[in-house]
Amino acid sequence: MQPESAEDFHARVLAATGPDGRLAVNIEEMPGWDIFPFEIDSLRIKPLEPLADDEPPRAGEDPATCWCAQPPKDEPDDHLVWSNESWTLRLSTDMKLPIGLSLGCREHYDLPTLPPDLAGEMGRLVVAVAAAVESLPSVGRCQIAKYGDGGAHLHLFVLGRPARMLQLRGSPLLDWEENLPVVPLEVHRANAEHVAARLLAGVGGAGPTWL
Ligand SMILES: [Zn+2]
After folding, report:
1. How far is the CA of 144 from the centre of ligand 1 (A)?
2. What is the Å distance from ligand 1's center to 64 Cα?
3. What pTM does this model have?
4. What CATH number should be reported for the domain whose range is 63-203?
C-alpha cells in the first residue's frame, strides 16, 4: 500500500464532520481530561476548512531572506541565555511560564536538513537543556517542541511546566500559558541564569549576554 495522499486524508476527516461541517468535540479524549483548560458545555470546533492548494512559504524559506543572512544589529542581544559556535539558546521573556527558551543553530538549516555533526550536537544539547530546566525549583517538567510552521530556520521550543500545577501537564500547556499572568523580567532572568550555569558546567559555551 502506498502512503496516503493529502486529498484522501482530508476527505476522511471531512466525511467525519456533521451537517454544519464541524467535527464533534471528543469528550472521550483530552477535552474530557482534567488537563483540558476549557469547560466543554459550550465548546465547539470550527468548521473544517477546504484543503489548501499548497503549503504556504514560511519566513526565511529562501536562506537569503532569513534572519540569519541579515547583518547583525547594533544593539546588544539581551535575550541570549547561552551559546557556542554553532548554537544559541534564547530567552522568551513574553512566556508566562517559569521559563521559555528557543534552541536554534546559527547556520541556516531546518530539522530535515541538519547535517549529522550538528544533529549529534543537538541531541546532546537537548538532553543538557532539559536537565538544566528540570533542575529549576518552579519547574515540574521540561517540554520540548518543534513546530516550524512559521519560520524555516530550525528552532526548538523549550518550555518549563510549572511544578505541582498538575492541570498544566501535557500538550495543553500552551493553551493555559496564554492565560497566565505575566512573569516579571527579573524572575525570567534568574531562572535563565540558573539554566545557563548548569549548561556552562556541563557543555561549556558562553553565558547570558545581559550579565
Ligand atoms: Zn536562517
Report:
1. 20
2. 8
3. 0.93
4. 3.30.428.10
